[in-house]
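User: My collaborator sent over this chain with a note saying "see what the structure looks like." That's all I know about it. Can you take a look?
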Amino acid sequence: MFSGLDKITGRIIAFDAAIGETVQFGALQVTPRICYTRPPTETPNTDAFIEVDEVTLQGDVKRIFTGWMFAASPGLHAVEHPIYDVWLTDCKNPLVAATAPPEPPPAAAAPPAKPAAPPPRRSSQQAAPQLATEPAAPRR
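Assistant: Without extra context I'll predict from the sequence alone. Here is the result:
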């Protein structure tokens, strides 16, 4: 789901585009490639990968935007066009991003863990490091 602003007339239009479907908004063609959102139990966060093309007066199609749009931050990656603004508002049929991987099933018979090896002993021939006990000379 998108919103579009025509800067000449000041009209804001809401429009839908299915994944892979191209929708015309003024001289722009908007094609969403994928849309993700968080589950309803979490803070809303919707983002989509979008391609936007401009149809010129000569009929040429020129790509003006390819990238991720974020519904929570419409200005972060916006379509820069002198007449139209387009931004993502929501996903109708989103891919729900998993928040955490599922818990692995408990192992029936896990092998016991080996105890940690004790630290190596110092031999009497290895001297312990000496700490400086004299104060440092004053700086001038």
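A starting point for your reply to your collaborator: Strands lie at 2-6, 11-15, 23-25, 28-37, 46-55, 61-70, 84-88, 95-96.
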